Amino acid sequence: MPYYNYPRQADKKGVKAIPIIKLEPGVSQAIRASLDDKGIQQPARIDLNFSGCCDASLCLRADAILETDLTLELDGLTFVINPETYQLVGEVTASYVDEMRRKGFVLTSSKPAGEWDGFGISDIKI
Prior knowledge:
Radius of gyration: 14 Å
CATH topology: Hypothetical Protein Aq_1857, Chain: A
Strand order of the largest sheet: 1-7-8-5-6
CATH architecture: Sandwich
Number of strands: 10
Number of helices: 2
């Protein structure tokens, strides 16, 4: 069962957690393998990546939990996101692609960060 730390909203039955990330099948295993291969024991931060030539894109970055972060434990992994980033992009969906010329994580958001949202593939940044 997922553990949510913030944000929460009231509904008719009380308080419910708002998910910050949804994992497509196989993603949690790919994230765990990528972190293990790099010897990383930190949470995976959902972050904006600025390349300088295009719109911002979403990425995963190994990082520590900050006091103000929104956190989610899912499939034995801890995900974190800055509240301002969450307000900007909304819920994120992570998938994993393993094709001949494309291998890595694809992150899309309920509020796209730019016109190229979901086209880029990335590894977990350190």
